[in-house]
Amino acid sequence: MDQLKKFNTWLKEHSKQEPVRSDPKGKEEDPFLLEEDQDEEIGGLLQQYGVLLEYERMQDLLPSGMYVLPCFDSVLTWQGALFVRQGLYKGAVFKFRLVLPEEYPDQGPDLYFTSDVFHPMVDPKTGQVELGSLFPEWRPGRDFAAFALPHLHRAFLRREYFASSSRPALNPEARQLFISDPTAFAERARSCAKTSLLHVYDNASGSALQFTKGPMEAHDTIIEHLKADTSSSLEERKTAFIDWFCDHYAHKRTRVGVAQGDAEAETILFDAKAQPKAGYPKAPVKAAPPILSRSSILGAGNTPSADEEFF
After folding, report:
1. Which of 83, 116, 156, 299 is most buried, judged by most C-beta within 10 A?
2. Boundaries of each UBC core domain copy (predicted)?
């Protein structure tokens, strides 16, 4: 990222020894205090740099259907959303936050759902997610906060996260219900998924991840165009559109809204009749990602054990 390169250059320039300053009365300030303050400032900047670098490199770890952004107020708090695409919670949109302590990376992170989630590994009062099984002992330099993201994704797919006694249950009621009455648990999970959709547009203050209601006419037009083109599969067409959209708006600060007397609001509409250069390419730039399956998660040729069944 260019921002990280600029930050690194700025940090090197400002880490050089500065001359002793004087206060307005002409009295010299204590050079030891100045050096201590400078070291503390540089330490904080280095920590932020490391966190941003970890965030930049976590893309290979980020599961399908999960989106994460650092907060505007602090890079030590990441806001995220998980779109559950299969399993007992299929269709849910669960929001969460990953909190890195001031001592990070010497101490591990905490993970909390901001959505109500009925799950054995989620505390029903605080929304905290159990990470002890993932990080039995935090190892600075070997363990990273981003490791918690695939762990969170697997928690909705693998049976071991629901029933295994080796994983502490922060919600014993949910675990007992899953073991004793799976049908009742499945109903609670479906209800939980439906409830999450009612609060999708409840955005936390200071969060960079904001959900807004876009113009439905644009949404419908895009869907119709994607379905109308039969020259490639739907997955390939979706990938092509996303590639085009990201490339087209990557360097624009666009506010999406429905123009209702507000001249500043911009409604993004997809023009299916536009020239080829204005629309997205019909042929995808790269192959479409594979559909999530048992083999894609476990690895080809692996047979899941009783504790690794997928729903």
Report:
1. 156
2. 46-198
